Hints:
Distance between the termini: 36 Å
CATH superfamily of the largest domain: CofE-like
Radius of gyration: 19 Å
CATH class of the largest domain: Alpha Beta
Amino acid sequence: MDSADCTHGLFIIPLRLDDEIQPGDRLVDKLLQALANHQLQLMHGDILVVKHKIVSKAEGQLVELDKVKPSASSRAWARRYGVDARTTELALAHSKRIVRRERGVLITETKHGFVCANSGVDVSNVDGGRRALLLPDDPDRSAAKMHREIKKRLQLYIPVIITDTFGRPWREGLTEAAIGIAGMKAIHDYRGRNDPHGYPLRVSLEAVADELACAAGLVCSKLARAPACIVRGFRYHAVRGSARELIRPAANDLFY
């Protein structure tokens, strides 16, 4: 694959798992079994998009909330805004920087460089509130491991995108974002090319991995019980890939 487009149509095929992912599960085994159970198969040119929750669960990124001891500051914040002091404490513990803390909203920068609510700490779709789920320790590494294993098992080059749900400044609602990538370029660079009217493009960088993550979110919603999907028909740039390409350097960030 050497260009990034979908001139012949784009297909997004949900992949439902028959059981919950548990710590220590071999995630690729589970996904391949789900493909077989639903009479689906990966094909040359496909991209596999996976919600981070099943990756984090398989990697054991779970914390028993009863074992979290919130600080006085976290308890005061929780009382004031009606939130769980334990998840606040976890969010602070797993943050590199507090971006904004106001009106019950905690926006942090994680060690990965992601700016998101509560450092990505989540209790929805986990186990009813007993445990909280953290982000994968290294989502790029997790994606690369899955990419290599699929190639070894199926003899197919299948890029992998791991996603999480993020809010957006100045926009209501949540969308998916790519937090781990392997096997494809995250950004398509149009700089130096001309648009159809001959105008030279100087700043056009298209975050195709995020766009694919959002497209996948349409079939992998929180209530769909489909934590992965196949994207078929998108012509990607086959490179090692990394979600770090999508993180704007602080020197270029007007809002840092």
